[in-house]
Design a protein that fits this description.
Radius of gyration: 20 Å
Oligomer: single chain
Number of strands: 20
Largest sheet: 5 strands, antiparallel
Number of domains: 3
Distance between the termini: 27 Å
Structural class: alpha+beta
Bound molecules: flavin-adenine dinucleotide
Strand content: 25-35%
Length: 338
């Protein structure tokens, strides 16, 4: 393992922001990780995985550890299911492709989500009606403080909508080194209810889809819908769909009967942040090198060599405009590193 100084993180974040790290190390296994955590220069480290959920507002003075731990293996199985363990540095989509190749069902709806497997539990990644927690078995994490190893199950992680304990109480306390999922060998549960999956399958004349068909449909939809960070710097949905009380939703519906809203839990509704942004006149708005994508209102875009500061300033303007118009604060889904 090599420790580098003054490293550009441009290649390590999908916004393509040229933030600098004063100290940087990439670790390939748990031993290297523990070695670097014990290095006094790496006190209070900043962890980076696939860099697809980060906005570096400034250069980063904390030492950076790039988690690059590989390996996919089956650790247990019976006639119906397998428990698969994947290193934190495995690209999430590579794990989906591996599962499909082996005909293991459960994560096909999560195809093409950028980022690494070790980061997937942090915001409980989700798409097309499936969340990581639906297949989660447990994970292994190393304490940043004392390098001790821990196993955390679903209850420990307190998963929520784009949320987990790692985003809250456990933030900056652990490094996730591997994630274990329970996948189905047969009797796959085919989930085509959400988004345009069904429509896409009908278009292809598929009436009895396999997990591979579902993944292909999701990949097609995502490729048509979301800008590829390799071509246009972005970090997917920048802002979260807000969860709003029934009372507030009813009030908004009086004025905006077309407001897209979905029952959440109890007396709460999830409102479409994309709709709020569009109705605030911000969809497709561009200022210099930054803007909200013309087709995807929720996607903040780096059109050129925007700095982190420019991106964050523009995002804050979007938050303020929506708050003024609808009285709703949109929280970032992306980690803002100031
Ligand atoms: C085009 C695009 C589309 C997207 N679509 C979706 C989607 O459909 N659904 C969805 O849920 N998300 C989506 N995202 C967001 C992103 O894919 C997820 O948040 C992903 O889990 C981030 O993984 P990462 O490895 O890139 O994390 P990073 O950005 O590298 O890190 C995210 C956070 O985790 C911390 N961290 C990194 N590695 C570790 C570790 N091993 N242990 C502990 N902490 C760590 C970092 O310090 C940081 O705070 C999208 C992003 C893009 C760019």
């Amino acid at each position: 393992m090599t420790v580098l100084e003054n490293v550009s993180l441009k290649e390590f974040n999908t916004f393509g922001v040229d933030a600098k790290a004063s100290l940087f190390a990439s670790v390939k296994n748990q031993l290297e990780l523990q070695e670097v955590l014990k290095d006094p220069r790496f006190k209070n480290p900043f962890l980076i995985g696939g860099g697809s959920n980060l906005l570096f507002v400034n250069s980063i003075s904390r030492p950076v550890i790039h988690i690059n731990i590989g390996g996919i293996k089956i650790i247990d199985e019976n006639d119906d299911s397998v428990i698969v363990s994947a290193g934190a540095g495995i690209k999430w989509h590579d794990l989906v492709l591996w599962a499909l190749k082996n005909n293991y069902g459960g994560i096909e709806n999560l195809a093409l989500i950028p980022g690494n497997t070790g980061t997937a539990p942090i915001q409980n990644i989700g798409a097309y009606g499936v969340e990581l927690k639906d297949v989660f078995y447990n994970l292994i994490a190393v304490s940043i403080d004392d390098c001790s190893t821990h196993i955390f199950d679903e209850n420990d992680c307190e998963f929520g909508y784009r949320d987990s304990k790692f985003k809250n109480e456990w933030s900056h306390q652990y490094v996730i080194t591997s994630v274990r999922l329970m996948l189905q060998k047969n009797n796959h549960f085919i989930n085509t209810q959400y988004g345009a999956i069904e429509k896409t399958l009908i278009k292809k004349n598929i009436s009895n889809p396999s997990i591979q068909d579902v993944a292909d449909a999701v990949i097609e939809i995502r490729n048509n819908k979301l800008p590829n960070p390799k071509e246009l710097g972005n970090s997917g949905s920048f802002l979260k769909n807000p969860i709003v009380s029934k009372e507030k939703t009813d009030k908004l519906l009086l004025e905006h009967p077309n407001l897209p809203h979905y029952e959440f839990t109890g007396n709460f509704y999830k409102i479409s942040a994309g709709w709020l942004i569009e109705k605030s006149g911000l969809k497709g708005l561009r200022e210099g090198n930054v803007g909200m994508h013309a087709q995807q209102a929720l996607v903040l875009v780096n059109y050129g060599n925007a700095t982190g500061k420019e991106l964050w300033k523009f995002a804050q303007k979007v938050q303020q405009t929506v708050a003024q118009k609808f009285g709703i604060t949109l929280d970032p889904e992306v980690n803002i590193i100031e």
